[in-house]
Specification:
By secondary structure, this protein is α/β, with parallel strands linked by helices. It folds into two domains: 128 residues, 2-Layer Sandwich (Nucleotidyltransferase, domain 5); 164 residues, Nucleotidyltransferase, domain 5, CATH 3.30.420. It contains eight helices and 13 strands. A five-stranded mixed sheet has the order 3-2-1-4-8. A five-stranded mixed sheet has the order 11-10-9-12-13, with helices on one face. α1 packs parallel to α2. The longest helix has 25 residues. The chain starts with a strand and ends with a helix.
Length: 308
């Protein structure tokens, strides 16, 4: 049975799994993204790990490496100016891996990779039209039409997270202001919560991350609940706008922020139905991914090789 490595590069962590044709992850490891000062050092570490694994499994029919990364361009094989990574500029990962490992390597946007995983093994099976939204350090998205990822002429299509929600709004790592991901992400909800505390003349809580805010909301704190309600309202609005030019059957939400469950999902659906065009109302389901958070992107990245 053919095997491939699936790699998910995130702003916080990098995940790697060895995947077979059935979508089973046979082995996995992870690293903190910030622990590598350059992509070259990270590529060396991955190649060393894979070579050691192959040495212990000499009969494995290993055929290549699939990678999902922020601003990963399937056409150029490079990460191109990813705002949420410590490595800047154009990083030719496909060339770097193929030179060291001499196995076929493919690269795509991290959200596109996760969308592929969802389409092959998760809630989007047999669904040729859907939006896939990742809510993590930023907001990523994969747009699937007729069963195919929309890449655009330059390989970078589908950046819903960098649609401007509020002109001259919060500064974004991309260099602009008011992008969706500065209002709808695990990082953004910390800012929203801090703004609500300030508005209510309450002291700031510097260490309040999304997990902390969720805990406070579940304990009945109104400010934390308001942060989730506000995030859901913004998210529902941008999803309603996206539907106008994609007409999906489903919208699937994925990533760390979805662990908030109904606290995020309910206000998102309310806002979506309030703002969507009338002919789309009550026709499109919004749900969470059916795959474990760490699996979808690994599976999708590996499928770039296994299902090539």
């Amino acid at each position: 049975m053919n095997l491939a490595a699936g790699i998910d590069i995130g702003g916080t962590n990098i995940l790697l799994g060895i995947v077979n044709e059935s979508g089973k992850i046979l082995n996995r490891t992870s690293w903190e993204t910030s622990s590598f000062s350059s992509p070259e050092i990270w590529v060396d570490a991955v190649c060393k790990y894979l070579q050691e694994w192959l040495n212990h499994h000499p009969d494995a029919n290993f055929i290549g490496i699939g990678i999902g990364a922020p601003n990963g361009n399937i056409h150029s094989g490079a990460i191109e100016d990813a705002p949420n990574l410590p490595w800047k500029g154009k990083i030719p990962l496909v060339e770097m891996f193929e030179k060291q490992m001499q196995y076929k390597t493919q690269l795509t946007n991290d959200a596109n990779a996760a969308a592929l995983g969802e389409m092959l093994f998760g809630a989007a099976q047999n669904c040729p039209h859907f939006l896939f939204i990742t809510l993590g350090t930023g907001l990523g998205s994969g747009i699937v039409v007729d069963g195919k990822i929309v890449y655009g002429h330059d390989g970078l299509a589908g950046e819903i997270g960098h649609v401007i929600l509020f002109p001259d709004g919060r500064p974004c790592a991309c260099g602009r202001k008011g992008c969706v991901e500065t209002y709808c992400s695990a990082t953004a909800i910390k800012t929203t919560y801090a703004e609500i505390l300030k508005k209510n003349n309450l002291p700031e809580i510097p260490k309040a991350d999304a997990k902390y805010i969720f805990g406070r909301a579940m304990h009945g704190e109104k400010e934390a609940q308001e942060a989730f309600n506000q995030t859901g309202e913004w998210l529902g609005l941008i999803l309603a706008n996206s539907v106008a030019y994609t007409s999906p059957e489903k919208i699937i939400l994925f990533g760390g922020l979805t662990q908030a469950g109904d606290l995020l999902l309910n206000p998102t659906i309310r806002s979506f139905e309030k703002n969507v065009l009338r002919n789309y109302q009550n026709k499109i389901t919004i749900s969470y991914s059916s795959l474990p958070e760490n699996d979808a992107a690994i599976l999708g990245a590996a499928s770039l090789i296994i299902n090539a």
